[in-house]
Amino acid sequence: MEQTHALGRRKAAVARVYIVAGKGNITINDRTLEDYFKEDSLRYLVNQPLNVTGTEGQFDIKVTINGGGTKGQAEAIRLGISRALCEVDKEAYRPALKAAGFLTRDAREVERKKPGQPGARRRFQFSKR
After folding, report:
1. For the chain, which domains are there?
2. HSE of 24, CA atoms in CB hemisphere, 13 A
3. Whose CB has fewer CB within 10 Å in the chain, the N or C terminal residue?
4. CA 35 → CA 32, 47, 91, 104, 122, distances in Å?
5. Model confidence pLDDT, tens digit, residues 76-111
6. What residues does 64 pair with on adjacent strands?
């Protein structure tokens, strides 16, 4: 099996995911998964597509990610892994990933700050007199 490439995005994070048949090593920006994400919940998010499809330990995954915070990065990697698994074997993995909701790009972004206001929707305190 040759290398498969996919892109995952969430908020400001962009993850480029490369999948190759292997022993289940996950490398993020040249660091191990455990080293990059210290929280168990974030490591769980990254491993979700592999758990759902039952492919833990079958693929080596290399990820380059930039932008965003830790939660956004973990969710971007999840989407990238899901898309890459679909490219590897569409018939086998797509139905399970689709049912779990891992193939949908979460398009919610931070709304920009507006002029004359302290935030995106927040207004300065109104004074009648």
Report:
1. 4-100 (3.30.230.10)
2. 9
3. C
4. 5, 15, 34, 27, 39
5. 999 999 999 999 988 889 999 999 999 999 999 999
6. 16
